[in-house]
Amino acid sequence: MATTAVPPTPRRSGTLVRVIGALFVLIVALVLGVVGWFCLHAHRALPQTDGHVRVEGLAAPAVVIRDAQGVPHIRASNLHDLMFAQGYVTAQDRLWQMDTLRRAAFGDLSEIIGPRMLEHDREQRFLLFRSTSERAWNALPPATRDYFQAYAAGVNAFIASHGSHLPVEFRLLRYAPRPWTPNDSLGLGLFLHQMLTHGQYRRQLAREKILAKLDPELTSDLYPNFSLHDHPPGAEARGLDQEPDEEDEDDDDAPPIVRTTLGIYGRLPPKQQKPGLGTLEWFSGGFPGGSNNWVVSGAHTVSGKPLLSNDMHLQQQMPSLWYEAQLEITGAGAASFDVAGFTLPGMPFVLVGHNQRIAWGVTNLGADVEDLFIENFNAQGEYQTPEGWKQPEIRHETIHVRGEADVPLDVVVTRHGPVISELIPGETRKLALACAPLRDPAFVSYPFFELDAAQNWTTSGARLPRWVGRR
Q1: What is the pLDDT of residues 372-390, one digit of tens each?
Q2: Catalytic (active-site) positions
Q3: Residues forming CATH 1.10.439.10 domain(s) in the chain
Q4: Domain 67-198+320-466 indexed as CATH 1.10.275.10
């Protein structure tokens, strides 16, 4: 019998395995390459922590010593060099944070991130922080301006000398930070004030809507006036602040407001519920923002010296909003200046801390510092004032948006402040926002040199209330 030889069939599975293996190796190589690139540039951006650095702008050598926790202890022979070195060292650690904070303050985030930040930038442009900081700068005393200029010069010295070794975020977003200015520092102060107080006008509008549905008496129940004296310390431990029993919920005579350790809880009895509002239950507080200070007398401490604890309750973030540092003037004949504590990246001096004589903390009291005014406009675009009809000021703003066309924005400004109706969905009235720092540049003060250098509370105790944002 005759036989026929048949050639073997190619092993396609082996070829597929080799292709998959090659792709896997390629992917691993790409991942390793990206990780290596990131690690290389991230490492190159780390601050120099030893050796010597030649920096133009210092009148005399300055010394920076970092402790085991990385906190810089900055020493210089004069105040100008100390502020210069503080700006330089802070930029070493926090330049990316400083740049994004000033962009958040002035409404420039869309320029580097894109249209997703347009809503935020529009609101910031309506608040006029840039022009407010410029006017405030001209109102500051010459000595204070010198401090800000020295700090800005230190930041810019770092930017200029590390153009190719800046934080990796700048490379990822493919842009370089513009030079730092004293106005940027003042803008950060306004932004901190905004974080602690802004949004009050929204609560005012909410109260207005509730008042339109409820009578004034019930509305006042929802917005009670009370103080901490209504809740003595330790009251919750004695059972004085308890929610009502369920069996008492339908009791019309039960008080509609219950103060608890977490906030203020209210439930209107069913007979007082109003049609169209649904079941009106609300909880104001929860875990609210706030601050507190505690001082323990030396009579109750082992050392015999008082202890100060300050919890500012700001939002958790990474990196922290605060930057710890010590600032000291040294040398023969140098004025006494040695202060340590927390600074705000982008601003000179220590904001919260202690020197060799006094210590201080800051607490946000949540004061009402915003008001809305209903403006009456005529067909000619004028608004009504006690002196007659006047033309408002028009501020022309341009928001640069990454990857898209610029967005023009016109802000109408009356004697009360900017008209912000566009920021309030469904609002048809012309509402002007009045806020002390926007109306009076003299409100933007910066008394921290006097506080950092204070010899005692007799001469310094009245300085802190002059900080930005007071009313």
Answers
A1: 999 999 999 999 999 999 9
A2: 291
A3: 67-198+320-466
A4: no
